[in-house]
Amino acid sequence: MFQNDLLQGKRILVTGGGTGLAKTISRRLLELGAVVTLVGREKSELDDAVRELSSVGGGRIASHELDVSVGAAVDNVIGKIWADGPLDGLVSYADDMFVSRTEDINPDEFDTIADTVMHGAFYVTSAVGKRWIASGRQGSIVSVVATYVWTGSAFVTPTSMSKAGIAAMTQGLAVEWGPKGIRVNAMALGTGGGSIDTDAIPMRRNSEPGELANLAVFLLSDRCAYLTGEIIAIDGGQWLNGAGTFTRHANMPDEDWKALRKR
To answer: Is 148 labeled as catalytic in the residue annotation?
Structure first.
């Protein structure tokens, strides 16, 4: 689908730790020649990911331990990364969520999610963007959100609010930073991936991680240089079918909610 040297020499930061989609995207970037820096809170997961991915493709990978919810730490780590060479791209995928009735969520639980998802996305985006602006460099940012940024979603209120904030940031910064040569886009995932009945998805299957990674690659690449401010759904048509949320939990009895919170 892509030429093997599509991202040759491009320096790209991926937030979100050393597992799941962040690792899958990192693998695809490496296959296409990128120099990848992976950041997350769990050093052991990062170390495992670097060992696994170090021989992939034509790129190089490194990692830094980082809690993106701490603004000063973000700026410090981005400064260290920049000292090795300026970045060309950012994939922002620090994520946190749990399914709960909103009346059961306490302020500390809300802050934990908002700090990681929304505040963390802003801190990293700002730290990278201001360095591009100061040096007159172009760059591309891809944030990972969810399709319920357009609809909201019951039972994941803190995450839904936070991701909607990232969507608003994406569109606002596209206008602010477009004249400076910085593109800002987002990819909106569904609630598939094995967690739901595929009858809710018009394509009748869950996503493959590689499909999501390919969209991130396209949005980062110079082949997509005229696209900015877009939030692109990649969910098999799920949200158009009215099922891209967690409303399926609406009829759960109290005892099931208590058990879910314990988990």
So the answer is: yes
